[in-house]
Amino acid sequence: MTTEAAARRMPGAPCWVSLLAHSLPATQEFYGALFGWEFRPGPQHFGPYARAFLDGLEVAGVGELAADRHLPVAWTTYLASDDADVTAEQIRSCGGTVGVGPLDADDAGRMAIASDPQGAIFGVWQGRAMLGTAVSGEPGTPVWNELVTQETDSVAPFYEHVFGFESEAVVSADFDYLTLHIKGKPVAGIHGVGNALPRDRGPHWMTYFAVSDTDAAARRVVELGGHVLRPARDSAHGRLATVADNDGAVFTIIQRR
């Protein structure tokens, strides 16, 4: 396991990302071609579900939406917890909502789906047989998770109280950004985008996947039936692009410096 992956398993840190899509075979085909993922079944607690592997190590999960569940097709960030039931109580007491669970996912772990006071959906994962992402930082793996919301001030205290984050502001007159730390390690971010928040999505958690070449990966997304929402651009952390898969799930690809 990489040291980056180990940091992602600390309580409070993003430890897993999971996607619910309309067609599991089509989604597996898309991400298999884009990232080189291989898939194995399970756990099947909500219906068809597969875990994605890269070089034999767990990376992410992909499930199939039941026909009667009208949920958005989106990547969900799961935050690690030592006790999902205690975390669920803290979420409620701090103004959040628990929509699903806590419940057992076979012997893999215990999970819940919640939303913060501004409505951004995230998961809680108490790992047992499955602790979470086993490799992070390599192309094809999740490398960063970021809450995109209206303003950081309105929601940062919620995450600090529930998950024990220490937040550090990026000092800039026109950039509302907090980096969330656990035990001194940066594990996630909160980006306040004001009126630039997409009206059709509202506040949401964004998953960043590493790629070896952002421009080539963006072209591949389109070839595979997806879309480029924000073209490749350079940032302080690398070259990134915001894309959607063939089912409309949005994520960011980044070629790190």
TrEMBL record:
> Which Pfam families does this chain map to?
Glyoxalase_6 (PF18029)
* All copies of domain VOC, residue ranges: 13-127, 141-256
UniProt name for this protein? VOC domain-containing protein
